[in-house]
Amino acid sequence: MRVPKPRGALSQWLGARLTGTGTAGTAPAADSPEDEAIALWTLHELSYRGFEDADDRAEWDPEVLHVRHGLEVALEDRLRQRWADAAPADLPAEVPAALAALVDADDGPSLATYVRREADRDQVLELLRQRSVYHLKESDPSAFVVPRLPVRAKAALMELQYDEYGDGDPNRLHAHLFARGLEAVGLRPEYGAYVDDAITENLEMNNAGSLFGLHRRLRGAAMGHLAAFEMTSSIPSRKMVQGLERLEMGGPMAAYYDEHVEADAIHEQLAAHDICGTLAEDEPDQAADILFGAWTCLDVEARFATAVLRSWGVSPQ
Amino acid sequence: MRDRDFDHPEVVLCKDGPMLLRGATSVQDADGTVHPVQRPVVALCRCEKSSRLPWCDGTHKVIPKA
Questions:
Q1: Going edge to edge, which strands form the sheet with B11-13?
Q2: Which of B17, B3, B6, B21 is nearest to A153 (CA)?
Q3: Tens of pLDDT along A165-184?
Q4: Which of A84, A243, A252, B66 could form a disulfide with A180 if both were Cys (CB 3.0 to 4.6 A apart)?
Q5: How confident is the model at residue A21 (pLDDT cuts 50, 70, 90)?
């Protein structure tokens, strides 16, 4: 993957800095939320797979890190403010029950419900291009958290991640299954192929997951995010299968979602109880951030779904 | 030193949810069909409403709780 196309002054500066093609100097302010989002996405990517045209040393370059820090502070403040404005007052004290209550209360629009019965082929392809930004690095943000957890939560996260990464079989690694699916529906399967098409809400959704995964301080939020993701995956994945089959787009892409119906019915139990429940017992100060991370997962997905449905002229339900 | 410091049961009954089963290599369903297991943990449907028995597919969540 190459450094994404700039979307404003900050991402322009960053691209030049990473590829060594621009003048030095201080980073300019971002022009827009979109400019800010692609800049932070690019900075986080330096800690995943990097870019073929960027200097790998940029990941730990103090000047680049300074920019990343500023963008991360702004993102975290924004996410925490949204949570503070929306947090229900009467959540159960036990973390697994509180997670279930947050998920039950989620009334965000469902893209999977729309795909199941109404979306046309072009809309589904557009959604898959957007989803590819995450699914081609599926579970990678959570993997950063493993060494930062106490014994029980660490073992449980590995039990879950082992399945995400194919149970030792590269053919069954979830990100690889998605790449196979992309190829089968005529899209590009390479890692990061559609980042330049990612809408701001999608970049923010990915940035939130990376922010939580990359900071030890935010391990509770990362695991809460994982739990909410898994707890809202099985039934929507089944709807995706039905929608893909309705549009005669079955095959490997439907198989990817089909795998998630079964896998995530297991993972949601592991994530809520064995990971988040034991983490909150062993490190009680993490309980609040577990719920913050879970709610944020639901909220950024709702914002993404709303933006996508509106772009299709559909009123978000 | 104790042999085991933590509970890690092979069978876990989830409240209003599936039965988790660890370490199985195959599961026979109610019709007698044997399904191979490739995962370290599987979730077996207990509400009988799953669309892919014997596995849980999350359908229990849309069934009103008794």
A1: B11-13, B19-22, B41-44
A2: B6
A3: 999 999 999 999 999 999 99
A4: A252
A5: confident
Q: Yes or no: say if B57 and B45 are a contact pair by the CB < 8 Å rule.
A: yes
Let me know whether A295 and A275 are in one domain.
Answer: yes
Q: Could A262 and B17 be called an inter-chain contact, meaning their C-beta atoms sit closer than 8 Å?
A: no
Q: Kindly state whether residue A1 falls inside one of the protein's structural domains.
A: no
Provide the ipTM: 0.91
**C-beta atoms of B57 and A234 within 8 A:** yes
User: Which residue has 């002229």 as its token pair?
Assistant: A313
Domain annotation covers residue A87: no
Of A167, A235, A262, which is closest to B52 when you measure between CB atoms? A262
The domain in which residue A164 lies consists of: 93-311
Residue type for A144, please? F
The string of DSSP codes covering chain B is --S-SS---SEEE-TTS-EEEES-SEEE-TTS-EEE--SSEEEE-SSS--TTTTB--SGGGGSPP-
